[in-house]
Amino acid sequence: MTETIHPCLSCGACCQNYRVEFSIYELQSMGGSVPDALTHDVPGNGNRARMNGTERYPVRCAALRELPEVGEGCIGCGIYEQRSSPCRDFPFASYGCHDTRTKLNLPALAEQEVTPWLQAA
Ligand code: SF4
Ligand code: SF4
Question: Whose atoms come closest to the Cα of 64: which ligand?
Answer without folding.
Answer: 2
